[in-house]
Amino acid sequence: MESRSSRATEAVPRQRIERLLNHSRFRLRFPAPLEATYRAYHDADALRVFRGSLGYLVLLYLAMAGAALAVAPSGQLGAWPLLFSGFGLLILIGWLLVRSRLLQRFYQRVVCALAALAVALSMINPMLVTDPEFRVLVYIGGAYAVVVVYLGLSLRLPYAMLAGWGVGLPLMAAGYALAPRLGLAIDWLLVLATFVGASVLCMVICYRDERQSRRVFLQAELLRLDREHIALLAEELQKQALVDGLTGLANRRQFDQALQREWGRAHREHRPLALVFADIDHFKAYNDYFGHQEGDDCMRVLAGIFRAQARRATDLAGRYGGEEFVLLLPGVMLAEAASRAELLAAAVRAASLPHPRSSCANTVTLSIGVAAMVPTQDGSPDELVRRADQALYEAKAAGRNRVIAH
Ligand SMILES: Nc1nc2c(ncn2[C@@H]2O[C@H](COP(=O)(O)OP(=O)(O)OP(=O)(O)O)[C@@H](O)[C@H]2O)c(=O)[nH]1
Q: Which pLDDT score is estimated for 344?
């Protein structure tokens, strides 16, 4: 249901659903993909209701059988018991089908066929009854059948009408033509008062029911769209909370979380954890010379180089703040981290971003501090940060554009 529903709403956007909902002349048909979803939704619900209604149908059937036996003159029942047992047979078939795939897949068609048979029985039954008083009762029983067909089986209006009028009209025509020749007794006034009257009334109620059910469906679709939208927003917010807006790298918050997590894991597994701290050399001068916008572009290029260096799934490239970048490398020893830092510095040099105001090169360069530790029981990630920071400070102090590893 969920995936079908999503597909439907891809094709039928929210505004269209709202328009359908607000339309004063509500039609019992949606645009194609939504209609299919509604039918699936409605039939699933109809089947559930049908299962629950079978017990009531049996009770109604027994009550009518009891009433008929109590009222009918003895020995005057004729073929009535045989035909009336036909209703019982239809209920039995419904009960046997209730868990079948046939009913799950073709609920409307199967139940419409059973309902049509019930309508046929309810119309033929009174023709075979000779006692006038009992015949009235049988006509009234037929009206009950009509009520059940329209309102008790969750048939959509077209199927309910097919079962009701599709069978009722031809039978009335046949009865009109053949009754005199076959000597059948048809009380047309009673047919009008029971079958026709009940059908017209039930059609109106059935239409209103289906309209209401469709409105509820549309409202549920809107709610589902809202839920999806909120989930997307929440996802976006969560992403924003962890990602640096300028560079797309992990932000400080994500870095802090990853550092805590990886520190704990490295401690448990007795593995090293390496940290690379990098700072752009003379970036203030770069900004002053080229402008802040160009400075942002430069940061984005450097971020791409950092991202490329975070090769394994557990590596994390982030922006620590300002013009400082970090690379967190779980399971990496100091020597390997230092050579990764050298690769990083070389890649930045190779990018050849002009920096006329730098004292250490003609292009943008990095000063990089590297530290690595195997976490101890009393140690903390702050110690690793402090060491990497110290190494970075030393790289700056030693003239920039270099890597120092501790
Ligand atoms: N364009 C741009 N500049 C930034 C951003 N964040 C920090 N900066 C700039 O980075 C510069 C950092 O200046 P300083 O801390 O003096 O460092 P520096 O000029 O790089 O000098 P050294 O680090 O000592 O080589 C400042 O001018 C900040 O405005 C940013 O997101 N975009």
A: 97
| Residue of minimum CA distance from atom 16 in ligand 1 | 284
Q: Which CATH superfamily is domain 252-405 in?
A: Reverse transcriptase/Diguanylate cyclase domain (3.30.70.270)
Q: From atom 24 of ligand 1, which residue's Cα is the shortest distance away?
A: 282
pLDDT at site 2: 42
Distance CA 279, CA 325 (A): 6
Contact at 8 Å (CB) between 90 and 149?
no
Walk across the sheet containing 402-405 and list its strands. Answer: 316-321, 324-330, 273-280, 366-373, 402-405
The DSSP code sequence of 188-224 is HHHHIIIIIHHHHHHHHHHHHHHHHHHHHHHHHHHHH
Amino acid (one-letter) located at 349: R
**CB 103, CB 162: distance < 8 Å:** no
pLDDT, mean of each 10-residue run, the chain (406 residues): 48 83 83 91 94 94 90 78 94 95 96 97 88 88 95 96 96 92 88 96 96 94 94 92 95 96 96 98 98 98 96 95 97 97 97 96 97 93 97 97 95
Structure tokens at 210: 């289906």
Residue pair 22/66 in contact by the 8 Å Cβ criterion: no
Residues whose CB falls within 8 Å of the CB of residue 305, separated by 6 or more in sequence, listed in order: 344, 347, 348, 351
Residue of 247, 280, 284 to mutate, ligand 1, most atoms within 8 A of C-beta: 284
Q: What is the per-residue pLDDT for 289? A: 97
Its pTM surpasses 0.80: no
Atom of ligand 1 nearest to the CA of 400: 25
Domain ranges (residues) in the chain: 2-229, 252-405
Question: Contact 303/297 with Cβ under 8 angstroms?
Answer: no
- Atom of ligand 1 at shortest range from CA of 293: 1
Lining ligand 1 with CB less than 6 A are: 246, 279-285, 287, 292, 295-296, 299, 322-323, 396, 400
The two counts, helices (H) then strands (E), for the chain are 15, 5
The residues, any chain, with a CB within 8 Å of residue 385's CB and separated by 6 or more, are 259, 275
Return the C-alpha torsion angle 16, 18, 21, 24, nearest 10: -80
